[in-house]
Specification:
The protein is mainly beta. It has one domain (2-151). The chain contains three helices and ten strands, in the order E-H-E-H-H-E-E-E-E-E-E-E-E. The protein has helices at residues 6-13, 38-41, 47-52; strands at 2-4, 24-31, 66-68, 72-76, 81-85, 89-91, 101-110, 122-132, 138-140, 148-151. It has a five-stranded antiparallel beta sheet. A three-stranded antiparallel beta sheet has the order 4-5-10, with no helix packed on it. A hairpin with a 4-residue loop joins strand 4 and strand 5 (81-85). The protein is globular and about 45 Å long. The relative contact order is 0.27.
Length: 155
């Protein structure tokens, strides 16, 4: 199951041109312990408010947020949708000293890379994952059909 944040319904649907050429999305991993229900997560409008709730970001050894700058948008006119794809994401030597049990892969929009903070970053989607770090590489595999599909309503 995946979670679509209320704020992203507007951003992904109305702003159908996301991602633009200078846009950056962030991959943020959330721990399973304390993870809030999808219905609660969906109401957060910023990464800051989400992390101020009960859900915690990953803290495993060698963890850092991944900046996804190689987004590939395409249009599927036959099915009236826009697709966004990206390569698989790997955290090298994830854990070992400090380990986490992970529950969500959060995709967030960063409106001003390098200058924005979590107050400005918008949570778009959260995908269920289950992984326990142990010092080996952790790879989030992106489905062959793409990371995001945005359907054009009424077409």
């Amino acid at each position: 199951m995946s979670t679509t944040f209320q704020v992203s319904r507007t951003r992904l649907g109305w702003y159908g041109d996301l991602p633009g050429t200078s846009d950056v999305w962030l991959a943020i991993l959330l721990q399973n312990t304390g993870l809030e229900a999808d219905g609660v997560l969906a109401d957060y409008a910023s990464v800051s408010t989400l992390l101020a709730g009960a859900s915690d970001e990953a803290t495993f050894t060698n963890y850092a947020r991944k900046q996804i700058s190689s987004l590939t948008p395409s249009s599927d006119n036959t099915n009236n949708r826009n697709l966004v794809d990206t390569p698989d994401l790997t955290w090298t030597l994830a854990g070992g000293t400090t380990n986490n049990t992970l529950g969500k892969f959060l995709l967030a929009y960063d409106p001003a890379p390098g200058t924005s903070t979590d107050v400005d970053r918008v949570p778009l989607l959260a995908f269920n994952i289950f992984a326990i770090t142990d010092g080996n590489d952790l790879t989030v595999r992106i489905h062959a059909d793409g990371l995001v599909r945005v359907y054009t309503p009424g077409v």
